[in-house]
Design goal:
Mean pLDDT: 94
Structural class: mainly beta
Number of strands: 21
Distance between the termini: 37 Å
Largest sheet: 5 strands, antiparallel
Bound molecules: beta-L-arabinofuranose
Shape: globular
Helix content: under 10%
Strand content: 35-45%
Radius of gyration: 19 Å
Order of helices and strands: HEEEEEEEEEEEEEEEEEEEEE
């Protein structure tokens, strides 16, 4: 009996490991996976990468996505369902192009898809679309969220039932153009409004969401990411400074703010005592993957933590990515073991 139990466990592990670190779907290109458990099912809200022929540039123009598909599975390693087009740019009145990394939240039986897109002036805003199901389809609000800016919304539900949205991305994500409070549309390159190397890096932003989940309840605030001495991470510190892809998870009552360092290609993290920060830099969760971008989410599923991420295994092209998942471990002191993923 003992032997049989071991074999069953091994079979399970084998099944899990065959599934981990492999493209979750191959029939479409997917990226920037935001994973959640809603109604006991695992949902993934990714970008849907396509090749529209738009030339690669420093603003990320080649990330020219036009719709979203929601993926789901009933368990880790289970069959994956693609629920079809959940939202198309053609059905978002204010948006023109580039549906970048989305996220979703469900509250009181209604689900909300949050997404960045460029408006008719070429400025990134965050939109929201509503559905009565986590799989969509979602119906977009007529206007973007008031006061929203930049890219990569990530929505975190705290234990008291309050929801917070984190946003921001520099360079192609335009956050540097908001440094004075209003958008600088004279910038000619993604680097024009960057701080000097010895100045504090540009901060991501956070705001609590309104009760109806459709607006910010307060103005976006800057988030401080500091080193162990409490000094802000500097703009020249490309190995540690925030670039894009914010995500927050809570572990042992602490708030873990994780993000991509962009041109150094890490997923780094910092720990804080409040959803507003400040967050103290700790190290890397994920080392660089294949492709320029690195973007992730972290979720607990039946007591095991997982990292969802993407790389370019299927296409070898930086703008045609595929989402994957792997296990994530917190050490007893609360730090996270750095993950290396290698494509053979
Ligand atoms: O997918 C487009 C952009 O690439 C995302 O918004 C960024 O986080 C990066 O992954």
């Amino acid at each position: 009996k003992q032997d049989r139990q071991t074999t069953v466990q091994e079979e399970k592990q084998e099944k899990g490991s065959k599934f981990l670190n492999k493209p979750l779907v191959e029939h479409i290109y997917t990226a920037d996976p935001s994973a959640h458990v809603f109604e006991d099912r695992i949902y993934i809200y990714p970008s849907h990468d396509i090749d529209t022929g738009t030339e690669e540039d420093d603003f990320g123009g080649h990330f020219d996505m036009r719709d979203y598909h929601v993926l789901s599975m009933d368990s880790v390693g289970g069959e994956i369902t693609d629920h079809g087009i959940a939202l198309s740019v053609d059905n978002v009145p204010w948006a023109e192009r580039q549906l970048w990394a989305p996220d979703a939240a469900c509250k009181d039986g209604i689900c909300y898809l949050y997404f960045p897109a460029k408006d008719k002036e070429g400025i990134f805003r965050i939109g929201v679309a509503v559905s009565d199901s986590p799989e969509g389809p979602f119906r977009a609000e007529k206007e973007p969220i008031k006061g929203s800016l930049s890219i990569d919304p990530a929505v975190f539900r705290d234990d008291d039932g309050e929801y917070y949205m984190y946003v921001g991305g520099i360079w192609g994500g335009q956050l540097q153009n908001w440094r004075t409070g209003t958008y600088d549309n004279t910038a000619k390159t993604p680097y024009d409004n960057e701080p000097a190397d010895d100045e504090p890096a540009i901060s991501p932003r956070v705001a609590r969401l309104s009760d109806d989940m459709l607006q910010f309840e307060e103005e976006l605030r800057e988030i401080e990411i500091v080193d162990g001495e409490g000094n802000p991470i500097l703009a020249g510190d490309h190995e540690r400074r925030f670039f894009e892809a914010a995500w927050v998870h809570k572990y042992n009552r602490k708030y873990y703010f994780s993000y991509s360092t962009g041109d150094t290609h890490f997923i780094a993290y910092a720990i804080g005592e409040s959803p507003y920060g400040p967050f103290v830099y700790q190290g890397n969760i994920l080392n660089p993957v294949q492709g320029w971008t690195n973007h992730h989410s972290i979720v607990e599923i039946k007591g095991q933590w997982y990292l969802f991420y993407h790389d370019t295994e299927l296409s070898g092209q930086t703008h045609l990515r595929n989402v994957k998942m792997t296990k994530l471990e917190h050490d007893p002191d609360g730090t996270i073991k750095t993950i290396n993923v290698i494509i053979e």
